[in-house]
Amino acid sequence: MTSPESLFAVPDAEEVRIRIPRYDRPGPRYTSYPTAPVFSEKFGDEDFRRALSLCRDRVLSIYIHIPFCERLCGFCACNRRITQDHSVARPYLDALQRQADRVAETIGGDRRTTQLSVGGGTPTFLSPEELDRMCKIIDARFPPEPDAERSIEVDPRVTARDQLEVLRANGFNRISMGVQDFSPVVQKAVRRNQTEEQTERLTREAREVGFLSVNYDLIYGLPFQTVDTFRETVERVIENRPDRIALYSYAHVTWISKQQRGFENKDLPEPERKVAIFLTAVEGFEKAGYRFLGLDHFSLPDDELAIAAETGDLRRNFMGYTTKEGVDLMAFGASGISETAEAYAQSTRDAMEWQERIVGGTLATMRGWWLSEDDKRRKWLIHRLMCQGEVSPSKYETKFGEALSDRIPDLEERLAPFVDDYLLAFQDGAYRVMPIGRVFLRVVAMTFDAYLPGQTGDRPMFSRTV
């Protein structure tokens, strides 16, 4: 057994393989705490309005969900509506405008935004004119700061240069492209046929029109993926030199996404092969000069994410890793989850139902959660672990004015197995994540989740951690 090395070292594949049977289990990704299954349907519009009223004069982050896609990708577990009828966009934007009016009026005061993210679905399902309208709806009610980060997720198969030009004219400076895997065999299995030329073309055009950052999203653990084929994908990604890379673990959640059923019969990688694919990618990106950040992100050393990791300012929310701290997140559109310092609120998922409820004069709140003091403390602990790779009793006490042992009396006992297995090491008065621990970070975070013991039943809630 080798000794733990630096936090950013590539984990040893054999040592990871040995630990898989102990740590491969269902678990949250902790883009929020408490996690969405905890949210209560008793939390309704009145609760959300009260939470919004507490956001007056705070700096905001905005998320817009555009659920429409022309085609269904087999791996996708996002909230989406498949249609080739582009006339659905106009009434959806009409409802978006009403929701934005209602939220802005409820918050009141100065509502400046430091971040805008658009996801889906496929946001570039919208025409250039509709994208322009979407931007103006939000900016008129939530004016952007001069240095605001503005990003959008796009599908290279359906995104054109004129759409990029409209987005850039509206201040967008980051673009995230779904790539997943360049292997034709894998693409056929998951019904996502996307050529390298399409990805390269959009990357080039995004840079030509002035986007400051181009990001790629990859998925490991898809049907028919092998170490060798994914190594080829990694090499081709590196040739295009994206500024950031998100390397997501495929979530096999057939109870949510029925189209995933049958993947088990298409050579879905077993946990050992899935981890080997991941570690191959980590090694390839590290050798190419990318920094390995948090759970599953990579960035070039001069990127804001890498700098935030160095300074301890890396943060995590529903949009993944971010540099924005202390901002309330306002989510617009079907299924969007808003996150304030005091509460979470999720809109109804179905796009048509969401539109009807918004037009009917409501905020279309489906469920939500008021954070208790215990929630806030555990949320801070989980996010420190996921973003800074540490659990520091002294920093916790400085932050909250109580000993961590008072909040979690059996903390040492809970973390001891991870220390014994070299996932964590106790150094300079803090528990620090070791290279092997990066692979099982979700499992370590589960230690601090007060709700997991009660989340049992016949229906699964979370994807597997490996």
Can you summarize this structure?
This protein is α/β, with parallel strands linked by helices. It is built from 17 helices and 19 strands.
List keywords for this structure.
single chain; 466 residues; alpha/beta; Arc Repressor Mutant, subunit A; pyruvate-formate lyase- activating enzyme; 2 domains; nine-stranded mixed beta sheet; three-stranded antiparallel beta sheet; globular
- Label the overall shape: globular
Secondary structure class reads alpha/beta
Low-pLDDT sequence parts: 1-7
Query: How would you name the CATH homologous superfamily of the largest domain?
Result: tm_1862 like domain
Query: What summary fits the major beta sheet?
Result: 9 strands, mixed
Could you name the CATH class of the largest domain?
A: Alpha Beta
Our estimate of the beta-strand percent is: 15-25%
CATH architecture of the largest domain: Alpha-Beta Horseshoe
Mean pLDDT: 91
Helix percentage range: 25-40%
The total of beta strands comes to 19
What is the CA-based Rg, rounded?
Answer: 22 Å
Instruction: Name the quaternary structure.
Output: single chain
Termini separation comes to 22 Å
Spatial strand order of the main sheet: 9-10-8-7-6-5-4-1-13
Number of self-contained structural domains: 2
Would you give the CATH topology of the largest domain?
Answer: pyruvate-formate lyase- activating enzyme
Count the helices. How many? 17
